[in-house]
Amino acid sequence: MKKIKRYVVAQSIALFGIVLLLIGCNQKEKKVIEKQVVYQAISTNKDTAVLSIVINKDRFYGQYEIKYGETTKDSGSIKGNIKKDVYLGEFYCRTYGGDLKRVPISLLKKDNKLILGKGVITTYLGLPCFAPDIPISYADAEFIFQEIKK
What we know:
This protein is of the alpha+beta class and 150 residues long. Helices cover 17% and strands 49% of the residues. It contains 1 helix and 10 strands, in the order αββββββββββ. The protein has one helix spanning 2-26, and strands at 35-42, 48-55, 59-68, 72-83, 86-94, 100-110, 113-116, 121-124, 127-130, 144-147. An 8-stranded antiparallel β-barrel has the order 1-2-3-4-5-6-7-10. It is globular, with a radius of gyration of 25 Å. The mean pLDDT is 84.
């Protein structure tokens, strides 16, 4: 009788394991749909900026380069979150002088353009960020990025 109970328990455990395996194999992987976009902007001072980013549903990442005239530039990586039409993140770059710096960045998507926002920068846990109680302004933006078609 004990052998029969052990056999039934072992069969039940094996059947349960097979069911779990089948359920796990049948679940489809959620594919993250990403789109790469390249933007360019020219300021009134003739500074140029190129933004090459990969965008998915709620995040973005990529490369950002700002050329100041013909002599200096800042270039590095950019990443952050997307909430509705606002891209909020950070620009981690190496300046022309060689120093590393981290700068908060905010972009407003409007009419297929990205508008660089200005805000008051503060620090939180040693990292620079925009002051949460002061709104970011997109009026009189230094850069308005337009998509470069390939």
